[in-house]
Design brief:
Layout (H helix, E strand, L loop, with lengths): L2 H20 L3 E4 L4 H14 L7 E5 L6 H13 L2 E4 L2 H5 L4 H25 L3 E3 L16 E4 L27 E4 L7 H11 L10 E8 L2 E4 L7 H5 L2 E6 L12 E2 L5 H10 L17 H7 L4
Parallel strand pairs: 1-2, 1-4, 2-3, 4-6
Antiparallel strand pairs: 5-6, 7-8, 7-9, 9-10
Helix pairs in contact: 1-2, 6-8
Protein name: Sulfate adenylyltransferase subunit 2
Pfam family, one: PAPS_reduct
GO molecular function: sulfate adenylyltransferase (ATP) activity
């Protein structure tokens, strides 16, 4: 393993162990994506050969790609996993095609996450966010304090000097912990290559059935896709740089069919990882606003 990757690995494992030691009921938010998968790999390393001492939590919007659900279910057979969805949102059939990304994300992601954290009383939750992922992420600390309503205050964050972290909270307050804060997208892929970590196949370029939707190229995934979108579908060799709900996640044209190809592609690109994420285009600073409301 390259020296800088070893440094990042050691730093992340230190943060993971510090969190497990400092909090009574920590958990890990598992999104099924590449960052979550690397984070889970690091947590496993931190406690090897023992099993990981925390539960995984998957907040299910019910609109993920089928391959993501298949991958998640394999992981769930190996680790304790809580799969939670907003039942009320499901009952009123919240649909990203009909209700839009803002309402869908608020009800099926933010509100569902807050419900889940309240139900299981987790006082710290690991997340796989990185500082280079999106501009509001860059404002985050590694230990991101959340008040009793799960709200994030960007102007009132705790200082983090060297590796000294303030992990103290009062009752019903919580912490979001981001051990991958100092990693970049390229670091993640270099580490996946180095450790031979298995990831969802959607990251690799293949000819897939896609259709144009709100400036993105989305996959025609299941029978819930509107007929108009299906009618205009076409085949193209694409892959996904980031994964989420399929109606809100755009594919990119690519020839990268293996991890090494992806690394070379990333070194040449000038575009952001989240260029195809429709939830980031609701309004200016939309991710920051969501995080202040309790989003991951």
């Amino acid at each position: 393993m390259k020296e800088y990757l070893r440094y990042l690995e050691n730093e992340s494992i230190y943060i993971i162990r510090e969190t497990i030691a400092a909090f009574k009921n920590p958990a890990m938010l598992y999104s099924i994506g590449k960052d979550s998968t690397v984070l889970l790999h690091l947590i496993k390393k931190a406690f090897y050969p023992n099993k990981i001492p925390i539960s995984l939590v998957h907040v299910d919007t019910l609109w993920k790609f089928k391959q993501m659900y298949d991958f998640r279910d394999k992981v769930a057979k190996e680790h304790s996993m809580i799969i939670y969805h907003n039942q009320k949102g499901d009952e009123i059939n919240i649909n990203p095609f009909i209700h839009g990304s803002k309402m869908h994300t608020d009800i099926m992601k933010t509100q569902a996450l807050k419900q889940c954290l309240d139900l299981y009383k987790f006082d710290a939750v690991f997340g796989g966010a990185r500082r280079d992922e999106e501009k509001s992420r860059a404002k985050e600390r590694i230990f991101s304090f959340r008040n009793k309503e799960h709200a994030w205050d960007v102007k009132n964050q705790r200082p983090e000097l060297w590796d000294v972290f303030n992990t103290r909270i009062n009752e019903n307050e919580s912490m979001r912990v981001f051990p991958l804060s100092n990693w970049t997208e390229l670091d993640i892929w270099e580490y996946i290559l180095s450790e031979n970590i298995q990831i969802v196949d959607l990251y690799f370029a293949k000819e897939r059935l896609v259709s144009d939707y709100k400036g993105a190229m989305i996959l025609v995934e299941d029978e819930r896709t509107p007929k108009e979108i299906v009618k205009n579908a076409y085949k193209k060799k694409v892959r996904f740089r980031t994964l989420g709900c399929y109606p809100l996640t755009g594919a990119i044209e690519s020839e990268a069919s293996c991890v090494l190809d992806i690394i070379n592609e990333l070194k040449a690109t000038k575009f952001s990882e989240r260029q195809g994420r429709l939830i980031d285009s609701d309004a200016n600073s939309s991710m920051e606003a969501k995080k202040m409301e309790g989003y991951f």
